[in-house]
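no rush on this but wanted to send it before i forget. theres a chain ive been looking at and ive put its sequence and its fold in token form underneath. i want to understand how the tokens follow from the sequence so walk me through it. thanks a lot i owe you, the record is right below:
>
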Amino acid sequence: MFQLFAEMFTSRDFPSSHLKTDTAHSRSPTWVTPFWGWLRQRLFCISPEETTFARRKFRGGDVEVQQHLEQIGRTILQGYHAALADDNPETLVPRLNAVEAEWRGFAFEGAAMGLALLDYRMPWKQNRVEVFLAGGGADHSYMVHMGIGWVMARLHQPIEQSIARLDPLLGWLAVDGYGFHEGYFYWQRYIKKQVIPSGLSDYALRVFDQGLGRSLWFVDSADVTCLPFTLYRFHPERRADLWSGIGLACAYAGGVDRPALESLRIASADYWPQLAQGVAFAAKARARAGNPAVHTDLACEVLCGMSAEAAAEMTDMALKNLQSDGALPAYEVWRQRIQCQFAESEVNA
């Protein structure tokens, strides 16, 4: 019977021969019906090794930075496996909230990935993500949408059709998550060879690049001396969105000190407004979730010239009178308003 279920539910990105059962969860049948909890983990569990720099062949660098970034990957998988073990929000959300504040958003991102996977692969119940976003996952909406994008990538879902079912504004973050996934797991294809994914509209390709920019923070081990060289190998039309993604990653994920951030600010040059806008998004994501981090405060101070609270407030102000029926997606108008505010502040400085 297991073989039958394996043929029904697995895909290229979830090969059953490489899966490892989370024994700690499989010994806890109080969370879910034992058979289903065991089966879901057996089919879909991802080994923590998949998020190590050695496995991904990322650039080596500062050991502490590498360990910090690897912890993020492990936390995402922690949330992912928690959702596989128990998709009931009443028990899942408290488990995620038990994660230390600095890392908690990543646990919610992983849980969203697990819930979205179950929605796609267990068709008799398809509203897990919807319920999660309406309840305990609402404050982590930014990260939840990014986690949904991981599943779109792994299951090769039609992106435009998939995001049409999501929030009209934040749903674009799923495309960002898709871009991050492809850069993180397939960086040699999408970063080194700069392959452009098929099946995306012109604007979706831009949001893909924003997620790809986030993945650069991991692929280059947050090395601010290497990142600009990697980025400037891309076509000039792609660089602004890549810089925006780097800004979001450096402020939300962190891992570097003030001198490194100052070097990044200088390296961004004319793309500083895009970098700062990504940082502001990170500040808003943490403010909304109530999980502030010292490194986010520092990134806002150095890269935005303001506190994390002020940067988050700027993103809120940019939402005022935002129209959803314009020539550009409201998400892009929102981003451009924030970037313009930074550009104007630089001119007036």
Residues 1-12, 14-33 have pLDDT under 50 and may be disordered.
